[in-house]
Design brief:
mainly alpha; globular
Length: 369
Amino acid sequence: MNGSSFKLPATATFWAILAALTAISLMLFSGILLPFAVSFVLAYLFHPIVGGLHRVGIPRGLSALVMVAISLLVLAAVLALIVPPLVEQLGQLIENLPVWYERALSYIQQHYGHYLQRVTGPQRAGEATPVEQFRQHLAPWLISRGQGLLKSGADLFNSLALLFLTPVITFFLLRDWDKMIASIQDFLPRQQAPAITEVAREIDSTISAYLRGTLIVLLIVSAFYMVSLGLIGLNYGLLIGLIAGMMSFVPYLGSTGGFLVSGGVALAQFWPDYTMVAAVSGVFVFGQVIEGNVLTPNIVGNKVGLHPVWLLFALVASGYVLGFLGLIISVPLAATIGVLVRYAVRRYYESALHNEDGQGSGGAAASQE
């Protein structure tokens, strides 16, 4: 009986317990972890700069303080420049939505009312028209969605209140980054430390290449969309360009979404001037060509190994489970899991389980001994 019992190796048990505790902690404390997650991402992005300043003789604490101060000044300047027009355009968009809604209903009734009647049958006395039925069913849905957005906005506001801690947390993380890495290395099991260090370096290379490169690409693409749409004179061009640029971390998502939204706005604004509509569409076609063939290959690189479908899944799954916190950690988490899977696949190919002769690299080494 004892021979048939199944026992995990001590190493596997250790990592399984550590992973379970990490997952449980994320679930329990997800409501308060947002500033810590943002601070860790910022510290991860900025620690090479702080390390460089420290190597030229500037104390690490002072280097961290200077880095945080510069970041806050740059953020304040950017917000001062783009937030007022963004708020104005958002207010105009909300104000014009009812007008567009009525126009859409009128257009449907005028051009497609008879098709709706074929589907729903002839209208009976006192029965609401198809358009009225559409309005009756759509209005409650819109109200419920709006209430959900308001609730999400309130939750987001509470999270933003916690973000005032972010500069402080970022400072301490930057100041003590090397000590934290050394402590983690000391914590690792000695026998598995070389393999874990190898995987950690691959994870670091993947995440740093993707995060830093993608951030630069997003800034360039967002600026291009906002400036181009602003020069064309498209309504809400600044808002559409910013959202489309920020969504470009997944290839084709930002440009496709921006193309569809801006195309609809351009049709409503410039119709029947096809030239202006084509100009708006051309902005996103040109932006996607430059992003996919010039910016991403040269700045991010083609060896990061993060497939767009995997990124989308990680974004949706992390956001569903952990909310806004999940959106922050989705890309690092996806990169980490991707590296671990590739490492496991490599070990599988080297193992006796994969080889036909029943001996992997370990088996061959053992036979030589």
